Amino acid sequence: MTDPAIVLFEAAKALIDYIDKEYVFDKSADMGCGGFDTYQSDAFHDLIVATQNAVAQFEATRQDAQ
User: Fold this and answer.
1) pLDDT of residue 24
2) Environment class of residue 12 by beta-carbon count within 10 Å: exposed (0-12), middle (13-18) or buried (19+)?
3) Tens digit of pLDDT per residue, the chain (66 long)?
């Protein structure tokens, strides 16, 4: 049976990798003339950074245990 913590770790890592690779944004602003600008809100960015740090820390702990 797979450890639920490992499943969560792998899912979180895949999600963060996808967000980085595909440039995912949660906000947009109308620039006028039909244009718009997309960006990450501070809250979304902070969550991404916190998750990246948690994933890296968990991964380092796993490697140390092996």
Assistant:
1) 95
2) middle
3) 578 989 999 999 999 999 999 999 999 999 888 888 999 999 999 999 999 999 999 999 888 877
Cβ atoms of 23 and 9 within 8 Å: the answer is: no
In 1-66, where do the E strands start and end? 27-32, 35-39
- List the one residue out of 43, 11, 13, 14 whose CA is nearest residue 26: 43
User: Could you count the other beta carbons within 10 Å of the beta carbon of residue 24?
Assistant: 13
DSSP letter for 3, please.
Answer: -
The DSSP letter of residue 41 is -
